[in-house]
Amino acid sequence: MKRQFEIINKDLVYNGFYQMEKYCLKHTLFGGGWSGEISRELFRRTNCVAVLLYDPDADKVVLIEQFRIGAAANPDHAWLVEIVAGAIDEGETAEQVAHRESKEEAGCDILELKLINRFYTTPGGSSEQISLFYGRVDSTQVGGIHGLDHEDEDILVYAVAFDEAYRMLEEGKIESGIPIIAIQWLALHRQGLRQD
Q1: What b-and-e string marks burial along 60-74, b requiring 16 or more CB atoms within 10 Å of the CB?
Q2: 54 phi and psi, to 5 degrees?
Q3: What are phi and psi of 68, to 5 degrees?
Q4: pLDDT tens digits along 49-94
Q5: Which of 163, 107, 165 lies closest to 139 in space, CA to CA?
Q6: Per the confidence metrics, is the pTM higher than 0.85?
Q7: Which residues have a Cβ under 8 Å from the Cβ of 39 and sit 6 or more positions away?
Q8: How would you classify residue 101: left for phi > 0, otherwise alpha for psi between -120 and 50, otherwise beta?
Q9: From the centroid of its chain, how far is CA 11?
Q10: Which class for 46: exposed (0-12), middle (13-18), buried (19 or more C-beta within 10 A)?
Q11: Using N-to-C axis directions, what is the helix angle for 177-195 and 162-170, rounded to 10°?
């Protein structure tokens, strides 16, 4: 079966910090033939980069906390524990963004950078794709408040032992999907990173 889809109509319904598009489309079916016309909204944003900053010598993970509007519906959880992340601007590579955001958001210089994976965060309604990296850092000077004033960033940065980061994940103190994926990846690869 040849997989195909056809966009019948597309409208821009909102154009602000992000965009929202509305589609009318149809697509081929696994059982043969075509679907009926389907209406879907798409939250359009640029692709992003996230970086798991880890110091294998000290066995510490660099975490950040910041206010997130998406979590503000639950006021007790509006500040999320996350890892460094940022949007890819036009003309930038994912690797360049990893280095830039690590410096801006956490004050960290990456000593070694490795791609973990690329994935869609919520493909049922968003175009965002994440390039997730491992960045080896020296955590001895990590800490404080970072971020860019002109981007209204207010980011608390700290380094915790891997065991503490994993405990935070298991206790539900880390509620954002990207750091959950990153810390679980680290749990699988930590010994190898420490041996290297």
Answers
A1: bbbbbebeeeeeeee
A2: -140, 140
A3: -130, 120
A4: 999 999 999 999 999 999 998 899 888 889 999 999 999 999 999 9
A5: 107
A6: yes
A7: 22, 23, 24
A8: alpha
A9: 27
A10: middle
A11: 150
The residue assigned the tokens 């070694």 is 112
At 30 the three-state DSSP class reads: coil
Q: Looking at this protein, which amino acid is placed at residue 81?
A: V
Residue carrying structure tokens 């801006």: 104
| H helices present in the chain, as ranges | 94-106, 162-170, 177-195
Task: Spell out the residues 6+ positions from residue 46 whose beta carbon is closer than 8 angstroms to its own.
Answer: 87, 88, 89, 128
Which of 108, 102, 80, 105 shows the shortest CA–CA distance to 168?
80
pLDDT at 57: 97
Active site residues: 151
Q: How far apart are CA 131 and CA 195, in angstroms?
A: 25
User: How far apart, in whole angstroms, are the C-alpha atoms of residue 98 and residue 133?
Assistant: 8
CA-to-CA distance for 107 and 92, rounded, in angstroms?
20
